[in-house]
Design a protein that fits this description.
The chain is mostly helical. The protein is 58% helix and 0% strand. The chain is built from nine helices and no strands. It is elongated and about 65 Å long. The protein starts with a helix and ends in a 6-residue tail after the last helix.
Length: 157
């Protein structure tokens, strides 16, 4: 259910899909948040949405965001030092770029499975350092990125 519906999936729906009664699901998972916490052990659409939404798995999401942000900052710094990445790119740009490509890939899967790769290549070309590159304007700061992530995607129920 989470693989198909993301965080819109309900515990009742999960029970029906699994072919068990809700009495089997609720003793193991008191609520949807408990089930979502368990999703950190597997990968699917629901897991893809969790780091982007602050509603579920808050402590693990916070830990994950710190670990990922640190690694991304190191990558950005190294690529800029090597002259491969535009100097005005920040680590906060990366999650938004990944969201853009991810949404294209996810939504085109049924009719154009190659479309995500096309737009990934387009974005990668735009990230390359070139002397004639156009001004990007101000990057998002940490607060703006957090505000964006809170407003993105389906609303948990």
């Amino acid at each position: 259910m989470f693989a198909e519906q993301g965080l819109r999936a309900s515990l009742d729906g999960v029970a029906r899909r699994a072919g068990v009664g809700v009495g089997t699901v609720y003793p193991r998972f008191a609520d949807k948040e408990a089930l979502v916490e368990a999703l950190f052990e597997i990968g699917d659409r629901g897991l893809r949405e969790i780091p982007l939404r602050a509603g579920f798995g808050k402590s693990r999401v916070a830990e994950l965001r710190i670990r990922v942000a640190t690694a991304v900052e190191q990558l950005v710094t190294r690529a800029q030092a090597e002259g491969a990445l535009r100097p005005e790119i920040t680590g906060n740009d990366v999650p938004l770029l990944l969201l853009m490509v991810g949404e294209v890939a996810q939504n085109a899967q049924g009719f154009r499975p190659d479309l995500g790769r096309r737009y990934l290549r387009l974005i990668l070309d735009g990230l390359r350092h070139r002397p004639d590159a156009t001004d990007l304007g101000e990057p998002v700061d940490d607060d703006e990125l957090e505000q964006f992530m809170r407003g993105w995607g389906p609303v948990p129920r």
